[in-house]
Every structure is written in structure tokens, then in C-alpha cells.
């Protein structure tokens, strides 16, 4: 029975299957390679999430264990290889991720939708604070990219390039919008004043 695509659809699934499409690997090798390629910028890996994903993909028939080895006193390492079903699923997932935009409902956009709850000064301050955080992150990533391009082909760093460009665009938008708010170029609703309770007339 074919496993529905949605059941294994995640960025970490794509990362694992991509690595195995290159060659068989054990989980530690995968973890090191993901770190070297800065995949953490686009894929969340917490605790045993990598091992959980590998187990789920193995149950789905998308990868298979090929051998188990032990080096010295180290724990046993199981080497996994991608299956033909895994290669097919990988291509389908990448096609879906790249070609089909979806609404992801990020927290920031939800906050922007209700920005008028704050005062203009509060809103501008928060937008500039976010821009400063992103600028610090952009500087760090720029240094990492400069090192990575010396040892990795550009094709495996495209997601980092894209994220960095989006980050730079957001910084520019945040700072310009904060300035427009501070200069009064964005209309702001007047705060409502509490209405006095209606006094009921006492009937004789």
C-alpha cells in the first residue's frame, strides 16, 4: 500500500532523502553534513527528530537499513540507503515545495494585522527592534556563507542565499515602515475613550 505523500511531507524528510540520494549514510553522518551545509536555517532538528524521521521513512518504505557497523568502543551505526519509492517521493516533495505556494501563517504577519492595537511609537520601536535582530543574524550568515562557498557547491547553498535575501528585504521594509509611522505617513486610528455608563433615570 502506497504511503500518502502528506504523511511524510516535511523539510526534514526532504533533507534526509536528499542526503541518501547522494549515497548511503548513517544518522551521525547525516547530522554532520546537515550542519556543514547550514540546513539548520531551513530545517528544525530538535532532540531525536532526525532519528524519528529516519524511523518513519523506513516504515514507509522510503529508505532501508543496509548494514550495521561498530568502530572501537563507539555505539553501533546503522547505514541507510534510499529506495526507489524514496527517490520517487523525494522528487514529488521537491516539486511540491518549489512549485506550489501555500499559506504558512507566520506569527509576524499575524502581529502586523493587529499593529494598530499599539501606539505609533510602540509599533515603530518594535519594528526597529526586529530589524536590528535580523541585521545581526544577516551579518552572521554572511560570514558563514563566505566560508561555505569555499568548500561547498553553490547549488547546496541556494536556500541559504534565498533566506538571506528575504532577510535583507525584510530589514529594509521594517526600517522604512518604522520611519513612515514616526513621520505620520501611515494613518493611525484614534484611541477610543471609555464611554460613561448610561445613568438610568429613577422613575418616581
TrEMBL record:
<dbReference type="InterPro" id="IPR036390">
    <property type="entry name" value="WH_DNA-bd_sf"/>
</dbReference>
<protein>
    <submittedName>
        <fullName>PadR family transcriptional regulator</fullName>
    </submittedName>
</protein>
<feature type="domain" description="Transcription regulator PadR N-terminal">
    <location>
        <begin position="16"/>
        <end position="92"/>
    </location>
</feature>
<dbReference type="InterPro" id="IPR036388">
    <property type="entry name" value="WH-like_DNA-bd_sf"/>
</dbReference>
<dbReference type="InterPro" id="IPR005149">
    <property type="entry name" value="Tscrpt_reg_PadR_N"/>
</dbReference>
<dbReference type="Pfam" id="PF03551">
    <property type="entry name" value="PadR"/>
</dbReference>
<feature type="region of interest" description="Disordered">
    <location>
        <begin position="185"/>
        <end position="204"/>
    </location>
</feature>
<feature type="compositionally biased region" description="Polar residues">
    <location>
        <begin position="193"/>
        <end position="204"/>
    </location>
</feature>
Amino acid at each position: 500500500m502506497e504511503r500518502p505523500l502528506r504523511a511524510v511531507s516535511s523539510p526534514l524528510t526532504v533533507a534526509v532523502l536528499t542526503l541518501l540520494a547522494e549515497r548511503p549514510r548513517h544518522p551521525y553522518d547525516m547530522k554532520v553534513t546537515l550542519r556543514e551545509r547550514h540546513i539548520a536555517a531551513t530545517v528544525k532538528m530538535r532532540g531525536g527528530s532526525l532519528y524519528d524521521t529516519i524511523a518513519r521513512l523506513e516504515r514507509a518504505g522510503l529508505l532501508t537499513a543496509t548494514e550495521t557497523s561498530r568502530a572501537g568502543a563507539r555505539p553501533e551505526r546503522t547505514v541507510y540507503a534510499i529506495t526507489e519509492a524514496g527517490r520517487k517521493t523525494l522528487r514529488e516533495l521537491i516539486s511540491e515545495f518549489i512549485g506550489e505556494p501555500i499559506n504558512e501563517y507566520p506569527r509576524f504577519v499575524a502581529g502586523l494585522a493587529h499593529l494598530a492595537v499599539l501606539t505609533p511609537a510602540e509599533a515603530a520601536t518594535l519594528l526597529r527592534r526586529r530589524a536590528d535582530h535580523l541585521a545581526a543574524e544577516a551579518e552572521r550568515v554572511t560570514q558563514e556563507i563566505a566560508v561555505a562557498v569555499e568548500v561547498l557547491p553553490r547549488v547546496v547553498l541556494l536556500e541559504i542565499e534565498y533566506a538571506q535575501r528575504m532577510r535583507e528585504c525584510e530589514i529594509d521594509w521594517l526600517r522604512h515602515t518604522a520611519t513612515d509611522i514616526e513621520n505620520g505617513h501611515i494613518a493611525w486610528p484614534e484611541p477610543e475613550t471609555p464611554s460613561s455608563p448610561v445613568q438610568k433615570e429613577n422613575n418616581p
